[in-house]
Specification:
The protein is an alpha/beta fold. It is built from four helices and five strands, in the order E-H-E-H-E-H-E-H-E. A five-stranded parallel beta sheet has the order 2-1-3-4-5, sandwiched between helices. Strand 3, helix 3 and strand 4 form a beta-alpha-beta unit. Helix 1 crosses helix 4. The longest helix is centred in the C-terminal third of the chain and has 15 residues. It is globular, with a radius of gyration of 14 Å. The termini are far apart.
Length: about 130
Amino acid sequence: MTERARPKLLLDEMLGGAIAEQLRARGIDATAVVADPLLIATPDEELLGCAANQQRILVTANISDFIGIAARWRNEGRTHHGLICLHHRTFPQNRSLIGAVASALAALHESRMLPAPGTEIYLSGRES
């Protein structure tokens, strides 16, 4: 039996690169939109497509736009590689935000409760 591929994350532009750096330091394959000049300012639907093509779960705080796109894709028979929606109001809005989000994503990754392709979950900040 082959080992299942380790999940990979793509962090949307508003999340910055520091969270991806912290995740990589924990052994998680994570990259940020801001680290790739070709992805900066990419329209949401194209970004979800890029994440799907790279077999990456997209992490975003732009919930309303991406949930709408994901629902439309489902209706059209299209599949993304998973979507993690982050509610900023459940995380501290100070200097500890980056560490809190990185810890919650790392805990979610370790729990193996990441979204399956074509599904979405909400990161509450209570995973850590």
